[in-house]
């Protein structure tokens, strides 16, 4: 009998956009979405890690979380992100995780997030449906 995969969802969200995605992923996987203030202290086959991209790049809180990750607890990381202007957080996070020798899925999720007058209502119902479909793919791994 195969053991059941264990998932974890961690995120950093200043405006609530990434939090919406994190909560949808967690609901799809049957786990809890927590901020990166909650470290990973038990084994996770897949950690879904979410953040936004800001003008200055990846938030220092995410960088600190990655620096403190222990490869013995996490087999693989899947990145999801939002932003109003800059594109995906994936390349920057991938570089940081390679230094930690933690496997990063090449498959990642990105959508626009609402910021001031830009992208009103994003992530919207379609984005939440899309991120749920995205997360379900990992249930089959």
Automatic annotation (TrEMBL):
Originating organism: Anaerocolumna jejuensis DSM 15929
Q: Do you know which PANTHER family this protein is assigned to?
A: PROTOPORPHYRINOGEN IX DEHYDROGENASE [MENAQUINONE], PROTOPORPHYRINOGEN IX DEHYDROGENASE [QUINONE]
GO terms, biological process: heme biosynthetic process
Ranges where the Flavodoxin-like domain occurs: 9-114
One GO molecular function term of this record is: menaquinone-dependent protoporphyrinogen oxidase activity
InterPro entries named among the record's database cross-references:
Flavodoxin/NO_synth, Flavoprotein-like_sf, Protoporphyrinogen_IX_DH
Q: What is the lineage of its organism?
A: Bacteria, Bacillati, Bacillota, Clostridia, Lachnospirales
In Swiss-Prot or TrEMBL terms, this protein is called Flavodoxin
Out of the domains of life, which is the source?
A: Bacteria
């Amino acid at each position: 009998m195969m053991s059941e995969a264990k998932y974890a969802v961690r995120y950093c969200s200043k405006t609530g956009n990434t939090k919406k995605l994190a909560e949808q992923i967690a609901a799809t996987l049957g786990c809890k979405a927590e901020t990166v203030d909650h470290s990973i202290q038990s084994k996770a086959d897949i950690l879904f890690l979410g953040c936004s991209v800001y003008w200055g790049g990846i938030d220092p809180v995410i960088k600190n979380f990655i620096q403190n990750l222990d490869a013995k607890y996490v087999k693989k990381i899947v990145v999801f992100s939002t932003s109003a202007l800059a594109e995906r957080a994936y390349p920057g996070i991938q570089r940081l995780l390679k230094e930690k020798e933690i496997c990063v899925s090449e498959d990642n999720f990105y959508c626009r997030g609402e910021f001031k007058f830009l992208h009103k209502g994003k992530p919207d119902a379609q984005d939440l449906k899309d991120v749920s479909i995205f997360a379900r793919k990992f249930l089959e791994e």
